[in-house]
Amino acid sequence: MDKRERVLKTLEMEEPDRVPITELEIEVPIMEAITGKEFSARTSLQMPVVSDPEKEKEKVAIKIETYREVGFDMFVVTLSAPEEWELIERSDGTIVGAWGRVFRLDKDRNQWVPYSTVFDSPDDFHDFEFPKPDDRGWTLGTRYAKKLIGEEMAIASFIRDPFAHAWEMFTPSIFVQWLYQDPEFIEKVIEELTEFNIEIIEKLADTGADLIVSGGDFCEEKGPLVPTKYFKQIIFPNLEKQVKAAHENGIRFVKHTDGNVNPLLDDLAEIVDGVHSLDPTAGVDIGEVKEKYGQDLALMGNVSVDNLANNTPEQIEEETKLCIKKGSPGGGHILSSSNSWAAGAKLENCLKMVKTGKKYGKYPIQ
Amino acid sequence: MEELIILTDQLDRLYDLITEPADTEKVKSAVQELLNSGEDPDDIIGTINEALDEVGTKYKSGEFFLSDLMMAGSSASEATGLLDLYIEESGRKKKGKVVIGTVEGDIHNIGKDINILMLKSEGFEVVDLGVDIPARDFVENVKKEKPDVLGISALLTSTMTKAEEVINALEEAGLREEVKIIIGGRPVNEKFAEEIDADGYAEDAVDGLKTIKSLTQGGN
After folding, report:
1. Window A:194-223, CB contacts with B under 8 Å
2. What is the DSSP letter of A302?
3. How confident is the model at residue B219, as a pLDDT?
4. Please, how many CA atoms are within 13 Å of residue A19, restricted to the half-sphere of its CB?
5. Which B residues in the span 75-94 are in contact with A, Cβ-Cβ below 8 Å?
6. Structure confidence at residue B220 (pLDDT)
């Protein structure tokens, strides 16, 4: 069974030959360590910032090489920056992203990290010139990945969830003020971002994506970021529209969130095809989720990213074996960390997770 | 007697607005009305703090969400700001001074910012250093501000070790004994706090307030 088939069968909730393995993201220093190649352009985990198409292709290529080297089954590619967007560094060293977030440089990781926002009032939102889904360039990374990978691995295109996008774009403190003062305004913002995503999903499906992974958090350690009534009224109806767009275009839809997702799983199981990251440090037990939702909901996770940073390879092997034992029986499980290979994750631990997954993830798994 | 009942009703309304939680402008209006009616500012501050305590308890129990805590903290802090003039004129002392920041390489600020709002509402003076703060800046600000407590925040496993660098830098500068140190953030725990010689730790903003109050004996 080839890698792509392994992933697609898993998303169909069937048993493949082995549990597929991947990561949503790998930080550049880890990719450099794996491939022995240097990547000079500055990146961001939150938004497309590589405005030079050739550099963007270079980024995709080094990531593909990393995924091949490690032996992952699914390649994950983010949206590329639209051609019209230019990275302009301001006098204070910050940049403004295409969505109005202000970023500053983390020199150690050579990454742009979110810092503040250009939005002080709801009027600023109306005045800001947002990028359009028709702008050229969004799907460059996915197209280039498809060209290099073909059918070798499954391809997941990573987009940002509209709620999480607004939460991040306005900054959490401003978002919360506006949500409580004027929920209709926030609903309108989320609807507009949803319309954008729907058009982008259609384009990504056309360019060869096998599934969509929707990034951005719904939850923190204790539970959902906002009261569940807002999920019911605003967030989930807009999530449903995006999932419908993916399904109408023949591809699957997986929602990522950190934190304690347990209170949202009843609804998510009805809406999406899969959930990532099932954060164990926030009390999510993949075995319990499997038992309750495992018939219909694909699970992606959940080796603790904290443990990848702090534990020994022997401990990671045990954790991975337990994760497979709880999450993999019957299919519907993609093995990954509970976030990404970042935040101090040790390479030897990351590789041990993969090695253990390949050794103990062969079906049938009891 | 009738006037007392009206003021008590207004204090109850203020309490309800913070614990709903309602938006900040409504809370500020309620405080302004109480001040205009001649309510004792100490009773207003007491009510705000009781309400914030309840919100914190409900957040810890899972009844309230992070956004509720953020909203209540923001409203309480803004409302307390209306009382600053009274506090200044009455010669009422702040409960203590806290310098707080997120370590170098870490730009997470939600927990820190909520903690600041709660500290201000409780009557602490707070100097916010911001995020991605190098150890030397923590040291300089301890020297300059002479706080009772230094709060060091780190959300990432990869950055929590920077808290130790801050404490070591304070040792080298001969300032460690001048200030109590609390570390905060999702990955920190009691063991780590002990290992790096911090005086306390907090896994979230609500714990942060409690720990800082205990380190300063509830305020001077």
Report:
1. 220-223
2. E
3. 47
4. 35
5. none
6. 42
Burial status of residue B37 (CB atoms within 10 A of its CB: 0-12, 13-18, 19 or more): exposed
A30 vs A37: CA distance, rounded Å: 10
pTM: 0.91
CA A11 remoteness from chain centre: 16
* Residue (of A331, A329, A338) closest to A23 by Cα position: A338
SS3 of A156-190: the string is: EEEEECHHHHHHHHHCHHHHHHHHHHCHHHHHHHH
Query: Which of B71, B107, B157 minimises the CB distance to A114?
Result: B107
Contact A344 B74 (CB under 8 A): no
- Cβ atoms of A210 and A252 within 8 Å: the answer is yes
pLDDT of B196: 92
Radius of gyration of chain B (CA): 18
User: Which two structure tokens, joined as six digits, stand for A37?
Assistant: 């190649």
Given the DSSP bridges, would you call strands B149-153 and B97-103 parallel, antiparallel or unpaired?
A: parallel
CB spacing of A227 vs B68 below 8 angstroms: yes
Burial code (b: 16+ CB inside 10 Å, e: under 16) for A319-331 equals: bbeebbebbbbeb
Instruction: List chain A residues with CB under 8 Å of B67.
Output: 176, 179-180, 225-227
A203 close to A137: Cβ distance less than 8 angstroms: no
The β-bridge relationship of strands A211-215 and A111-117 is unpaired
Report helix, strand or coil for A96.
strand
Average pLDDT, chain B: 88
- Of residues A157, A141, A160, the one with CA closest to residue A62: A141
SS3 B52: helix
Model confidence band, residue A72 (pLDDT cutoffs 50, 70, 90): very high
Alpha-carbon distances, residue B10 vs B20, B27, B211 (angstroms): 15, 11, 31
Task: Tell me how close the Cα of A344 comes to any Cα of chain B, in angstroms.
Answer: 5
pLDDT reported for residue B111 = 86
